[in-house]
Structures are given as C-alpha cells and as structure tokens.
Amino acid sequence: MIYAGKENQHQNVIRRVTDGLVRIVYPLHCPVCDDIVSVPSERICTGCLGKLKLLAPPWCMKCGKKVEDDAEYCMDCSRKEHLYDRGRALYEYAGTAESIYRFKYGGRREYAEFFGAEMAEYLSDFYQNVKPDALVPIPLHKKRKIQRGYNQAELLAKALGRQWNVPVYPNLLERVKNTVPQKKLNPIERQNNLKKAFNITRNDVKLKVTMVIDDIYTTGATIDEAARALREAGAERIYFAALTCGAGI
Ligand SMILES: [Zn+2]
Ligand SMILES: [Zn+2]
User: Are the C-beta atoms of 182 and 141 separated by less than 8 Å?
Assistant: First the structure.
C-alpha cells in the first residue's frame, strides 16, 4: 500500500482532533527524558529540546557522518565503495542512544512523529537537492516485526512522507533473512550477514530516485544491501536519510 504524502485540509483537521483525543487517553512521552510532555501542542519537553545534538558540518560527502577538519570522506567511505549514492543523518549518536533504544525496543512508537518532523525540517535542503520519487524504509524481518509490533524505520518514513508530501513504500523491500543483529558483528561480518537480505516485492513499481529511510546508520552495510536490491529493480539513484549516525555503534 502506498501512503501518499498529500493530505487535504479535512483530513488534517480530523488528524489534529484525533491526536488531541488520543493524547488525553495516552499522554505522549518525551523522546529525550521519557517523562510525559506537559504542553499539549508539543511532542518534547521544552527543556529537552536542545539535548539532542544535530550533526554539524563538515560532513562526509558520501554518508553524512561528521568528519574532522576538511576531509572530504570519512575513514569508512574513503576505504570502501558504497552501493548507494549519498546520505545524510540528523543527530549525533552520542546523546540519542537511550532514546533510540526506547524507540526501537521499548514500544515508544510515538517518538516517530517528533523525529520525523525534525528530519523533515533539518534535512529539507538534502531532500530538495535529491527530490526522491519515494521513501523506502528499511524493513524488519516479518517475525521481528510481529515481536516488536512495529518497524521504527517505517514509522519514521511515514512521518517524513507526510511532512515532505512524498509517497512512502513500506513494503517494497522485504527482509528475506532473519539476520543476526548487526551491532554484534564486525564490519566484514556485517556485510556478509546481510548479503541478499532484501527482496523487492513488487515488479509494477518503477522508481528512478529513491530515498531509503532508517533509524541508525553505522557502516552502511544495511543501506548498501537495500541499494543493491533497489538497483536491480531499476532504481537509478539511491539516497538515504537516517535519524542518527556514528561510528562504532
Ligand atoms: Zn523531556
Ligand atoms: Zn562516510
């Protein structure tokens, strides 16, 4: 199913009213401190707003990771050829680790709206340059998604899609291998672990420019494998946007 980014005014009003009612029953938790957000129009405590560190330039020209001085590429990208074209991330990993953990494993799916809105705002220049036909979240394996109840990358992509008014294809990629969690492996094992990890589920969808969405970018092994599948399916340019990135996660 495609989630079109465009919503008419009527739907927007309904969404706001529904959100308001839902927040009375299920108060929102702050993505930083996890307390209940007391200001009804906000999704984060005012005091927590500055605690998430935006990745400041200079960035790696390939993966968007922070680089020292004026280096064009990070260590990883200067050693290795990636299969995607270029990517950017929003936050430095340090300072977001606990929040991301709760977002992925702690049932805090509500963080997606805040994170999605932040990505939409701060990565809008990247989006304007790239102009993707669609956003494609990195999928979880079916079993893992059932266990967890949701896929955080899909929630992010949908929040972003609404903000940027671009279609989201949550089921275009399918994870065919229930892989070992990447954080337990070294970079070479990570790449092998993911070989042929993704399939394309539809042959009626032709996307020239895609933007893959994920929560964390580390070595790029996951994005590379997704890019491989998308390229085989005819995508000409593949970018990614991630919520956070850092080395050695
Ligand atoms: Zn807070
Ligand atoms: Zn890089």
Answer: no
pTM of the full structure: 0.87
Q: What share of the chain is helix, strand, coil (3-state, %, to 5)?
A: 40, 15, 45
* Residue 67 within a domain: yes
Question: What is the CATH classification number for the domain harbouring 109?
Answer: 3.40.50
pLDDT at 64: 95
Distances, alpha carbon 1 to alpha carbons 36, 124, 167, in Å: 33, 25, 10
Residue 167 lies in a domain: yes
| Ligand 1: centre distance to CA 222 (Å) | 31
Residue-range definition of the domain harbouring residue 67: 51-245
Structural domain tally of the chain?
Answer: 1
Arithmetic mean of pLDDT, 115-140: 97
Q: Rounded to whole angstroms, how far apart are CA atoms 240 and 158?
A: 15
Residue 219 CA to ligand 2 centre (angstroms)? 8
216 C-alpha to center of ligand 2: Å?
A: 14
Residue 149 forms part of a structural domain? yes
Domain membership flag for residue 11: no
- Strand runs (DSSP E) across the chain, as ranges? 86-92, 134-137, 173-175, 198-200, 209-217, 237-245
pLDDT in tens, 51-86: 999 999 999 999 999 998 888 999 999 999 999 999
Which bound ligand lies closest to the C-alpha atom of 60? Answer: 2
